[in-house]
Amino acid sequence: MGLWHARTIARTILRWGVIAGYTFAQHHYDPRGDVLYLSVAGYEGAPASAFATPEGHNIEYDKVGRVVGMTLTNVRWLLDRDGELTITWPAGHVSAAELSEALQTAA
Q1: Domain residue limits, the chain
Q2: Is 77 helix (H, G, I), strand (E, B) or coil?
Q3: Is 21 helix (H, G, I), strand (E, B) or coil?
Q4: In terms of CB atoms within 10 Å, which end of the chain has fewer, N or C?
């Protein structure tokens, strides 16, 4: 696969630079591994946490829970096979402390 095809794959996924409401400013496609690396602008350093999706992708978060990067696997193969790429987001969790004020009854 040539560089043109690798760029076409990246543009297919990043048509507007946005996935699920997150804007990714940087991307790198590795054609040998069929992996697309995405990151948001302005974030430096390692992510605070990361979670694997059921499809085998990886989503990285900063310390307040914002998505700062994604690693998408088998990109070309999935696009050729399915015509789309599925990314299942990890389930969110809210702590009791985060909801305590909202759950207090008016006195």
Answers
A1: 3-103
A2: helix
A3: coil
A4: C
Task: Quote the CA–CA distance of 15 and 29 in Å, as a whole number.
Answer: 14
Q: d(Cα 48, Cα 12) in Å, to the nearest integer?
A: 29
Neighbours of 67 (CB within 10 A): 21
First-to-last C-alpha distance (Å) of the chain: 67
pTM metric for this prediction: 0.69
Tokens describing residue 19? 């996935």
Contacts of 36 (CB under 8 A, 6+ apart): 9, 10, 13, 27, 28, 29, 30, 70, 71, 72, 75
Query: Letter for the amino acid at 18?
Result: V
pLDDT tens digits for range 51-98? 998 889 999 998 888 889 999 899 888 888 887 778 887 655 556 666
